[in-house]
Amino acid sequence: xxxxSLTLNTAEQSLLNTQTELQVSSNxxxxxxxxxxxxxxADQTANPDVERTYGWLGTGASVSQITQVRNQYLxxxxxxxxxxxxxxxxxxxxxxxxxxxxxxxxxxxxxxALGTFWNAWDTLSQDPSDVSSQSAVYQxxxxxxxxxxxxxxxxxxxxxxxxxxxxxxxxxxxxSLIDQIAQLNTSIVQAQAETGGDEANGLIDQRYKAMDSLSxxxxxxxxxxxxxxxxxxxxVTSGPATIVxxxxxxxxxxxxxITGGQLGGLLQAQTDLDGYMSQLNTFTSSxxxxxxxxxxxxxxxxxxxxTAGQEASTINAYTTFLKGPTSxxxxxxxxxIANLQDVSLNFSDGTTGTLENYLSKIQEDIGRDVxxxxxxxxxxxxxxxxxxxxxxxxxxxxxxxxxxHIIQYQQVYQAAAKVVETTSSLMNTAISMVPAA
Amino acid sequence: MRITLTMENSQTQxxxxxxxEQISQLSQTIASGVKFSSPSDDPYAWGQCMxxxxxxxxxxxxQSNLTFATGxxxxxxxxxxxxxxxxxxxxxxxxxxxxATGTAESAAYASEVNTIVQQVLNLANTQYxxxxxxxxxxxxxxxxxxxxxxxVVTYDGDPNSISVRTDIADGSSYNxxxxxxxxxxxxxxxxxxxTLNVLNQIWQLQQALENGDSTAVTNSITTLSDAFDHxxxxxAIVGANLSELNTQKSAISVFQTNDQSILSNLQDTNMAQATxxxxxxxxxxxxxxxxTNILDNVNLASYLxxxxxxx
Lengths: 437, 311
Description:
The structure holds two protein chains of two kinds. Chain A has helices at residues 2-30, 72-101, 109-126, 131-194, 201-217, 261-297, 311-314, 327-339, 355-395, 399-433, and strands at 40-46, 50-52, 55-57, 61-68, 221-224, 230-236, 239-245, 248-249, 304-305, 316-317, 345-346, 352-353. Chain A has a four-stranded antiparallel sheet. A two-stranded antiparallel sheet of chain A has the order 1-4. A two-stranded antiparallel ribbon of chain A has the order 2-3. Helices cover 66% and strands 11% of the residues of chain A. Chain A is built from ten helices and twelve strands. In chain A, a hairpin with a 5-residue loop joins strand 5 and strand 6 (230-236). Chain A is of the alpha+beta class. In chain B, the strands form four sheets. Chain B has a two-stranded antiparallel sheet. Chain B has a domain at 57-266: CATH 1.20.1330.10. Chain B starts with a helix and ends in a 7-residue tail after the last helix. Chains A and B meet through helix 2, helix 3, helix 8, helix 9 and helix 10 of A and helix 1, helix 2, strand 5 and helix 8 of B.
């Protein structure tokens, strides 16, 4: 009987094992479309053999642990790719808004206003004392000033409203994820302590999900300690900075100079925007000082007014600068000023060229920056997709694979059930061998 | 390499998105007729276009100046021709008057010359549009008047020129054309070593005829001859200016055409090329969609449950 009991127990163990394995497969299948889920495998180890007169007899197997299949190196690489893609796609998106706001095709925007301005002076040179020609000059000057101001203010708004707001939002989001990771660290260690060292698979998946989401906002690198906790660092311009250590979270602030992820992209966009706005100031400064000089040299008064350092946002046109000079003086001023459109100037940022050259350079700079960001975004997206595939190849669930496993488990279960049935009827036979007293 | 559920979808999605993006871009270039709608499409070309546009707009303004200038010069030329005729007429009167007999004939001649004086004065105050063309830069008021009792000709204009730009500058040197004949250029001339005034000389003739001063009348034949030559000289200068301006107009016109063609090359969509590319992209996209559809149905689960479809 001891023999049959052993067989029954072994078969019973098989049934239980198979049920566990089926549950693991079922869990895998239900999580098949979660990219942050790492597939689980039920590890079986053989039970210790028992000694018999004829040798060692196996006693079946039992499920020793349920392990996840994951490759931390790949996960780290993937997080880098996430950060890069978020950086460039975020940057590209902001730069495109900036490009629209600053749009100037040569027949629109500041170029158009400037063209009308030069033409008004040309017309004035034909009849300097003509009131309607003079009025056209005043109008054109006002138009130039207001077009420059409104372009500048559109750009400024993108900086102060959109970009700043998004920076704050991103920081808040990142901090809540950082807290989550720190808490999960503590929970994982606790859970593993309770089960005597078994990995807390579900919690580890959640922590990976949090880090994956975080890697889109800021760059993320992590290393796993022996006790199962991760130390997470991010990148600032001076090097790596720790944000999670054990159960302690170090929140980031808007003053951290993060160099990657969505936050890095926003910070870069802000820097680029400041550059363009500064170029607009340089342009305006030259325009105002050159035109004013030509007007005053010919016996007239200043045409434009501006404030040093904030030229593009403060430029304004005077309304009586044509009163006073003689016709001959006005004629000379008109010819010189109309001529200014062809003169190569030295701008305060070191560039030389005509005013229109400078405007076209601004447009080219913006266009190139957008193009570069788009190319980088597309390249990093391709890399991200490739790494995602690799990571999924290791940790992802293959439905086909699980299907085959289920078929296997079904057959094992059926066979083990058959063993139970047979052993059971043998036991009955053995019992009924002994006649009733 | 294991292929999992999410892997198939993410790569497919990426590829389909890329195809769609290209199709969308090509459609836009065809619909709008221009290759780029924002600087990022082609930054260098965008910048070039802006600079060419600036030239286009400047040439238009220059053409307007040239039209103004040629109109002014034509008006000047016509006035000078008429002036020349009047001087000639006055000289004829002087010649006829030297053999005049009797005060009645003289009086008639004097009256004719008086009319000529008025006509010459009117010509001197010719306007082009609103502007007096012989007034220097003081074009808003009529420059010439004559005191009928003393013959003193008063010029209220100045010696300044009216200049307009007639070409794009190179560097900071202007290309302008000065288009007017000033009052002094018009009437001041020398004859027999003296500086004379054309209008005044004709007035002198009138006085001489009224007073019966035959010496003076004879004298005026010479001075009016010289006046005639002077006006013809001025006329020749104006004629040369006009000719130059017309040449310049044609030249600018050629530059304008060139610029338009440069602009067109830079920014116009090559329709044939774009539509061919669009068709290719659409075919590729359709093929990708078909493959996605086929692969979606090929998995083990659907075969085992009997709902598997054959591709």
